[in-house]
From TrEMBL:
Protein name: ER-bound oxygenase mpaB/mpaB'/Rubber oxygenase catalytic domain-containing protein
Domain of life: Bacteria
Domain spans labelled ER-bound oxygenase mpaB/mpaB'/Rubber oxygenase catalytic: 41-274
Transmembrane annotation, as ranges: none
A Pfam family this chain is assigned to: MPAB_Lcp_cat
Length: 312
């Protein structure tokens, strides 16, 4: 039986399912939050997460309903970087601020009016639990994948812990968790199933155009100069950035990949893991993005010595 057995039926309901405070067995209101003792705090805000930006945004929008939602309601085609700047901070603050529920609900409420139809005429709604959870799952995957690939290998127990913490994270949004896997093993099966649902939607094909065509030339840089400057940047993108992507995404986006590129990518990833002890000596403000850095400063904890032992 597929872990996503109810996904298709659930997502086609296209109805928002908002939940708010959840009382515990004693009738008290449960206030979930993550903290400095969590692996999500340790790794999510690490600056090396930038290496996974295309995996995060791309896998999310390879599901047709989300790709269409971006096309229908976003300014991605006219203000790609602006959209990223507006979306990223509220999610970060859901994890790292002293008011996680406030920011989680803010993220949720951005999506109250995000609805429409896809190519087969069926409806979608961004706050449908199956669709909203998939968007969250791409962030969970980012923590797992980027840490294990570019920072240090995670043990099985650590992967389980990150997944369990991701359930607390999801609660902060105030959307039904009916589409959420209950165990790490179920999450892995869920992820693999979702990869096989990827489609070449216009949104994601457009968003990966810079990989196929090369980085666009800034207006102030002459074309001959940019041709020289962009060559190593494009080579890096086509090896490292494309290397982070699942093969299903490479296929739907028509991104070239071969054994040589895979070997080069694995060498780069191994190099990044090898220098992790050196990276962890950087000043904290360089090691973490601003929202995470500020959170560590507020709690008075230096995270650099925490959770640094590689998995056996």
């Amino acid at each position: 039986m597929s872990v996503n057995q109810g996904f298709d039926a659930g997502i086609r309901e296209a109805e928002p399912m908002i939940v708010d405070d959840t009382p515990d067995t004693a009738g008290e209101i449960v206030r979930p939050r993550l903290g400095a003792d969590s692996l999500v705090w340790k790794f999510y805000g690490d600056s090396r997460g930038i290496l996974g930006f295309q995996r995060l945004a791309g896998t999310e929008n390879c599901i047709e309903q989300l790709g269409q939602a971006v096309l229908d309601h976003s300014v991605i085609f006219s203000d790609f970087l602006g959209r990223a700047k507006r979306t990223g901070p509220p999610v970060m603050k859901t994890v790292y601020s002293t008011e996680p529920e406030k920011w989680g609900r803010t993220v949720r409420d951005f999506h109250r009016d995000i609805k429409g139809t896809i190519s087969d005429g069926s409806r979608y709604h961004a706050l449908n639990p199956e669709l909203f959870y998939w968007a969250h799952a791409t962030f969970v995957d980012q923590v797992l994948y980027i840490t294990d690939t570019f920072i240090r290998r995670l043990s099985y127990a650590e992967k389980v812990q990150i997944f369990e913490e991701s359930k607390v994270w999801y609660q902060l949004y105030g959307v039904s968790d009916r589409g959420q896997p209950q165990t790490y093993e179920e999450f892995v099966a869920y992820w693999d199933d979702m990869l096989n649902r990827f489609v070449p939607h216009k949104t994601i094909v457009y968003a990966t155009g810079y990989i196929r065509q090369g980085l666009p030339r800034p207006k102030k840089i002459p074309a001959p100069v940019w041709k020289v400057l962009s060559a190593p940047l494009n080579a890096f993108i086509r090896t490292v950035i494309v290397g982070t992507l699942p093969q299903q995404m490479r296929d739907v986006c028509d991104l070239e990949w071969n054994d040589k590129k895979e070997r080069n990518f694995q060498r780069f990833a191994a190099f990044m893991r090898a220098i992790n002890p050196l990276v962890n000596r950087l000043p904290l403000k360089y090691l973490y993005v601003p929202w995470a850095y500020e959170a560590w400063q507020k709690v008075g904890i230096d995270p650099r010595p925490l959770h640094n032992k590689p998995a056996a």
